[in-house]
Design brief:
Layout (H helix, E strand, L loop, with lengths): L14 H19 L6 H18 L9 H29 L12 H38 L3 H29 L4 H5 L9 H29 L6 H35 L1 H5 L12 H36 L1
Helix pairs in contact: 3-7, 3-8, 3-10, 4-8, 5-7, 8-10
C-alpha cells in the first residue's frame, strides 16, 4: 500500500477478483493518482469495496447466489458468532465467581435468577450447537471419503495443537490457584495483592482458549465450504440457527439484569474491593463482556436471517 500508484490497495479484494481485474485496477489507480500517494478517503473507499466483494464471494452478502449456499454459510456465521459468545460467557463466569457471598441475602433473588438463567441457556445453546454439528456429520464424512482431508488437514492440526496447549495452560492455572488463598485470587489489590504469577497464568490461558476456539471455528468454516448438505439438513440447520441466536439474545439480556441487580446491592463486588466501599457501578471488564455478547448476538441474528430467507426459497423450489 506504499506504492505511489495505489496497486497495493488490491489486497483488499479476493484473489479471484484480483486475477480478473487486477491489471485494470492498477492502471486506473496509476492514471488517477498520477504519481501521488492514495489519500485516506480513497483508501477507505477501496477497502470498503474490497470487503464487500469478499463478502459476496463468501456468500455473506447479496442474494444472487444459490439459496443452499446462503443457508449453509448463514449456519456457519451463527456457529462463528456462538464461538465468540462462548468467550464472552467465559469472561462473565469469571467476573461473577462467588457473587452470592457478596450480595446481601435479602437482595440475592434477582441476581441469582438472572445468573441461573444464563447458566441454563448456556447448556441449551451448547446442546443446540452440538445437534447442528451432528446432523452435518454425514456430509462431513462424505467429504473425507471423497478425498477432502488434505484440504482441511492443516486447519485440524493447528486447532488440535492449540487445544492441547490450552488444556495444559488450564492445568497449570488450576495448580497455581490451589496454592493461593481466596483473598490472593480475588481480593482487593490494596489489602490482598493478587499474586502476579496467577494473573499471568490466567492471561495466557485465556489467550490460548480464544485461539483454540478461533482455530476450530476456522476449521468448521473450511470444511463447510466444501460440504454438500441435503435440503432436509439445511432446514434443520435453519431451525437450530434461529434457536441458538434466540438463546444468545436471552443470555445477553439476563447478563444485563444480573449486572443491574448486583450493582444495586453490592457494587463493591464488581470492582473487587472490600464490602461496603463506595465505588462506581460500572466495571470496564463487564462492559467489554456485554459489548462482546451484543456483537456476537447481532452477527448471529444476521446469519439466522440469511438461513431463514434461504429456507423459504428452498421450500418454494421443492414445491415447484
Amino acid at each position: 500500500m506504499r506504492r505511489p500508484d495505489g496497486a497495493g490497495l488490491l489486497r483488499w479484494y479476493p484473489q479471484a477478483w484480483r486475477d480478473r481485474y487486477g491489471d485494470e485496477f492498477a492502471a486506473l489507480m496509476g492514471d488517477s493518482l498520477d504519481g501521488r500517494r492514495p489519500g485516506p478517503r480513497l483508501r477507505l473507499s477501496v477497502a470498503w469495496a474490497g470487503l464487500r466483494e469478499r463478502g459476496h464471494q463468501a456468500h455473506l452478502l447479496g442474494g444472487a447466489t444459490a439459496a443452499a449456499e446462503r443457508a449453509q454459510v448463514g449456519s456457519v456465521v451463527v456457529l462463528a458468532a456462538w464461538s465468540v459468545f462462548v468467550l464472552a460467557g467465559t469472561s462473565f463466569a469469571r467476573l461473577s465467581e462467588d457473587f452470592r457471598t457478596a450480595v446481601p441475602a435479602g437482595s440475592r433473588a434477582m441476581s441469582t435468577a438472572a445468573f441461573d438463567t444464563v447458566l441454563v441457556l448456556a447448556f441449551v445453546g451448547s446442546f443446540l450447537v452440538l445437534c447442528g454439528i451432528a446432523i452435518a456429520l454425514p456430509a462431513f464424512f462424505r467429504l473425507l471419503g471423497s478425498g477432502g482431508w488434505p484440504t482441511i488437514r492443516r486447519h485440524v492440526v493447528r486447532a488440535t495443537a492449540a487445544t492441547v496447549a490450552a488444556i495444559a495452560a488450564v492445568v497449570v492455572t488450576v495448580a497455581v490457584a490451589h496454592t493461593l488463598s481466596t483473598a490472593q485470587r480475588n481480593g482487593d489489590l490494596l489489602y490482598h495483592p493478587v499474586v502476579w504469577r496467577y494473573v499471568a497464568a490466567i492471561v495466557v490461558t485465556a489467550v490460548l482458549i480464544a485461539a483454540a476456539i478461533a482455530l476450530w471455528t476456522g476449521t468448521a468454516l473450511a470444511a463447510t465450504r466444501r460440504m454438500v448438505l441435503p435440503r432436509t439438513v439445511l432446514s434443520g440447520e435453519a431451525v437450530l440457527a434461529t434457536a441458538v441466536m434466540t438463546a444468545m439474545a436471552l443470555m445477553t439480556a439476563a447478563t444485563a439484569v444480573w449486572w443491574v441487580a448486583v450493582a444495586s446491592s453490592a457494587p463493591w463486588f464488581l470492582q473487587g474491593v472490600r464490602p461496603g466501599t463506595a465505588v462506581s457501578r460500572f466495571d470496564p471488564n463487564l462492559v467489554a463482556t456485554m459489548l462482546l455478547m451484543l456483537m456476537a448476538t447481532a452477527v448471529a441474528a444476521y446469519g439466522a436471517q440469511r438461513v431463514t430467507e434461504s429456507r423459504g426459497e428452498l421450500r418454494r423450489s421443492s414445491i415447484d
